[in-house]
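Lecture 7 notes: from sequence to structure.
We start with the chain below.
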Amino acid sequence: MPVIEAVKGFKQYEGKSRSGSDWTHHNNFPTGDCLREDLGEKSPEELYVKTGLVTPEQLEAFYEFVPSNEDGIHTIESVKLLKVLEEQTWVSRI
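Predicted C-alpha cells for the same chain:
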C-alpha cells in the first residue's frame, strides 16, 4: 500500500536533459527503455525510495505485481486489489 499511495501522489516535475534543455516529466513509474535518463527523468527508486516515501523492500515487492515487457513501462494508470475470501481446489494431481 505505501507504494500505491506514493504513485497516487505523484506530481509532474521539471528536469534537464544532458544537453541542458528543460523537460517536464509526467511518467510516474518509468522503467527499462521507457526511462529517459538522457532527459533528466527519474526512476521509481529516485522518485519513491530516495525521497523516503517507501522502502527499497516495499518497491521491490511491488515490482512483482507490475506487468511489463523488455521495453519497460512509463506510467501506472490504475491499481486494482482483489480480496480472496475463499480458496477451493477442484482438481489436484495425486
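Points to note: The mean pLDDT is 93. Residues 1-94 form one domain.
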